[in-house]
Amino acid sequence: MEGLMLARVLRDLGPALPLRTLGWAFPDETTAALLLDGPGLEGRRNLVLSYRPPTPVVFLSRERLRGEPHNPFQRFLVARVRGELLRAEQLKLDRVIALHFGGESGFVDQAPTRLVFEVTGRNANLLVLEGGEGFEGRIVMAAREITGSRNRFRTVRTGGRYTPPPPYDKLDPRTVGEADAGALAALPVGRWRERLDGLGPLLGAELARRAGLRPDEAPGAAWPQALAALRALVQDPTVSEGVLQGGAREAARGEKAAALRKALREPLDKRLTLLRNQLSDVARAEAGLDDAARDRAEADLLMAYAHTIPAGAASALLPAFDGSGEQPLSLDPTLSAIQNAEKRYTRARRREEVYLRLAEREEGLRAELQEAEARLAALDTAELETLEALSAQLQTERPEKSPYGARFTTPGGFEVLVGRNNKENAALTHRLGKSMDHWFHAQGYPGSHVLVRSGGRDLDLPDILYAARLAAAHSKARGSSNVPVDYTRIKHVWRPRGAPAGQVHYTDQKTVFVDGTLPAEGSGVASG
Fold first, then answer.
1. Cα(145)–Cα(157) distance, integer angstroms
2. Count of CA atoms in the C-beta half-sphere (13 A) of 399
3. CB 3.0–4.6 Å: which of 140, 237, 321, 472 could bond 128 by disulfide?
4. Does a cis peptide bond (omega within 30 degrees of 0) precede residue 56?
5. End-to-end alpha carbon distance in the chain
6. Which residues on neighbouring strands pair with residue 378, listed in sequence order?
């Protein structure tokens, strides 16, 4: 149900308020009907709230409805949502309405409450809030509890704080004037709903029909008739039968496109976060070069004046090489002056090496970030067919899953398993791998264990390079060039006593140098 349709229901109801409530009926487990009575209604009517996803609706009906509560939420409505219906309001033209009840006095007094109906397709929900103004407040009970495991962006839980979905920043069709309509003249009329609040696929298609235009046709100079059709739609947001059928198909396509867009967006968002964090590491490493330069300068001073510094000194005041005066240095009193200098040289060298290693990856990271941002932006405008093709491509690009790690195949046809965490690394190396299978790991970098199930056979060079690139790409050296990767037989790999899962020692290894990028399936190309 779309925003303008909701506004029409509240517009019909509004002049009759406040109204007496004569009790609840429940035709099924996701429909609640409130019997209303008052002179403005010209008799009794049921306000029907059907909150079953994905097609929730609200409407006024003269039909006599019956039914006892089917679940605890419906029993709660009977017990707590009582008293006169004082007013009904809509969040702009969004698909969220609030019904305010006055409560009642009696043997057990019932406090005022608000009933919030989110008429939002697959996320439809009906909630009882404490009495108050607007759309925010404490949730007394919800028809559907939404936890973080189901939706990590928004939770709806009994006892929690309710915050409505943020309204869209769109034009209000009830106040659209000639200037606004003229600005929309170049936009296909079927897409006006992207700029107008309260219109969805059904009303968007109905607007095109009333304007006498195809949905993919821009009004151009005919924008006045499109504006007239819009104003008529605001007054009477009903949909013709032909549009209803076509709109239903469009709505189904829209729902499917939204689901695919969300599924494709999540891994891209994670990748963007990772790339930005890695670029931040580069910036921090670059800032560390100043510290490295200071350490080297201090180490040079210590080496030059080591003979003047007594053993056990905690500090020293040494003349600067540039004649700018004396420079204070803090020292480790347990080390000699030479050892303090060597400690500074080591620290400087480590900072410089970290920067060089990360700076080597910066260009590739920025290119990958730009590509990921472009792919993410393209999702917002992609049609359903494009999204389906992207989803199918993603499925084919994903390595085959296995209980023990990501699975690949070498150019020679050997199965390769890559551990995705310490537990899987330990399982591959100590449980699944046979003594003569081959084992790969990036030298000097934390990363995945890579097992080639060779069955005792020797590996050809393309197989070795393929597995080595997998090990490099699944390590902290990902994206670097000339990454050293060690490989040996499983029988030469062991876990030290008391070591955590995934930590090993190994012997009889050989080393190859490869790029830290994923190889193409079946390819063993490398640079080293």
1. 5
2. 22
3. 140
4. no
5. 61
6. none
Q: Is the pLDDT of residue 527 over 50?
A: no
Pairing of strands 137-142, 510-514: unpaired
Strand ranges in 38-174 using DSSP code E only, listed in sequence order: 45-50, 57-61, 85-90, 96-101, 113-118, 125-130, 137-142, 161-162
Phi, psi angles (nearest 5°) of residue 298? -65, -40
Query: Could you give the strand order of the β-sheet that contains 450-453, starting from the edge strand earlier in sequence?
Result: 406-409, 415-418, 450-453, 438-442, 483-489, 510-514
Split at pLDDT 50, 70, 90, the class of 526 is very low
Q: How far apart are CA 439 and CA 416, in angstroms?
A: 10
What average pLDDT does this structure show over 67-91? 93
Which DSSP string corresponds to 151-180? -SS--B-TTSEE-PPPPP--B-TTS--HHH
Pick from 97, 30, 28: nearest CA to 65: 28
Report pLDDT digits (tens) over 295-351: 999 999 999 999 999 999 999 999 988 888 889 999 999 999 999 999 999 999 988
402 by DSSP, 3-state: which? coil
Contact call for residues 372 and 278 (beta carbons, < 8 A): no
The interaxial angle of helices 201-211 and 241-304, nearest 10 deg, is: 120
Our CA angle for 303, 305, 310, nearest 5°, is: 105
Give the separation between CA 20 and CA 406, rounded to whole angstroms.
64
Using the structure block, give the residue that is written with the tokens 């600067």.
320
Q: What CA–CA distances, in Å, run from 264 to 195, 367, 374, 433?
A: 24, 20, 13, 35
**What is the rounded CA–CA span in Å between residue 494 and residue 507?**
9
pLDDT digits (tens, 9 = 90+) for 88-103: 999 889 999 999 999 9
Per DSSP bridges, beta strands 450-453 and 415-418 are antiparallel
